[in-house]
Amino acid sequence: MSNTKTFVYINRKAPYGTVYALESLEVVLIGAAFEQNVKLIFMDDGVFQLTRGQDPEGIGMKNFSKTYAALGDYDINQIYIDQQSLDDRGLTIDDLQALVYEDEDDDWNEKSSIHLVNREQLSDIIESADVLLNF
């Protein structure tokens, strides 16, 4: 992957009410299918995209949140959650879906794709991007 560019996707919007969350997810999956090195950041209201038990039926929207569980199948295992955004919204890591991948270097053991990070670490991740997309 040394010649592969790093694509960092920043997800800042709530999962429903706009097209940003769904469009980001679709673009991420397409990029991963083309073997891009993908890193996902969830911050601000974007942390709600990964919460458990979403039920948007009351607002007439389709629940696409279960699609996030497929990210590991696309070799997307660098998912960064802004700790401050969770704190500001009264959420913890336990409120989020468990997103995992199978580590081929460790006898295919399942490992968490989610990494809680602070703002300084987020800045470093963003700085490492060859391509930065903000949703």
Structure commentary:
- The protein is 21% helix and 24% strand.
- It has a 5-stranded parallel sheet. Strands 4-5 form a two-stranded antiparallel sheet.
- It has 135 residues and is an alpha/beta fold.
- The protein has one domain: DsrEFH-like (Hypothetical Protein Ychn, Chain: A), CATH 3.40.1260.10.
Name its key features.
135 residues; alpha/beta; Hypothetical Protein Ychn, Chain: A; 5-stranded parallel sheet; two-stranded antiparallel sheet; 3 helices; 7 strands; 21% helix; 24% strand
Number of strands: 7
Q: Which CATH class?
A: Alpha Beta
Largest sheet: 5 strands, parallel
What is the third-level CATH name, the topology?
Hypothetical Protein Ychn, Chain: A
Enumerate how many helices there are, as a single number. 3
Characterize the overall form: globular
Alpha-beta classification? alpha/beta
Would you kindly provide a brief summary of this structure?
The protein is α/β, with parallel strands linked by helices and 135 residues long. It is built from 3 helices and 7 strands; from the N terminus they run βαββαβββαβ. The protein has a 5-stranded parallel beta sheet. Strands 4-5 form a two-stranded antiparallel ribbon.
